[in-house]
Specification:
Elements lengths: L4 E8 L3 E2 L5 E2 L3 E7 L2 H9 L12 E8 L12 E6 L4 E5 L15
Antiparallel strand pairs: 1-4, 1-5, 2-3, 5-6, 6-7
């Protein structure tokens, strides 16, 4: 049986480090998921349902497999930054602050 893959979109208010080097994100919210990565990317690029909500400047798209603790490969996730001129989220390099973080959608 083939593993079912889901692509979860989580938006983050900001990405910083505290004084001890721990990542901080402000408010975060998992907006939803898609079974098709291309649809998830389109949703991010076009800011479907106004995921930005005037405060969520970053987003992460991460794969999860069906089941308990099904977080996918860290290498497959993508980070995005909101572009107000284009009203959408667009790909950026993985921020240094999150290099050790996994499981944004479910913790």
């Amino acid at each position: 049986m083939e593993d079912k893959m889901y692509w979860f979109i989580t938006v983050l208010e900001y990405i910083e480090e505290d004084d001890l080097g721990w990542p901080k994100f402000g408010t975060t919210r998992c907006c939803g998921f898609y079974t098709d990565k291309e649809v998830a990317l389109k949703a991010l690029h076009e800011n479907w349902t106004d995921m930005w909500e005037t405060c969520y400047d970053y987003a992460v798209l991460e794969p999860y497999y069906e089941g308990i603790s099904g977080v996918g490969d860290k290498e497959d996730r993508q980070f995005f930054e909101y572009d107000a001129d284009k009203d959408g989220y667009f790909e950026i390099d993985e921020p240094r602050e999150v290099r050790h973080v996994v499981g944004f959608a479910f913790g």
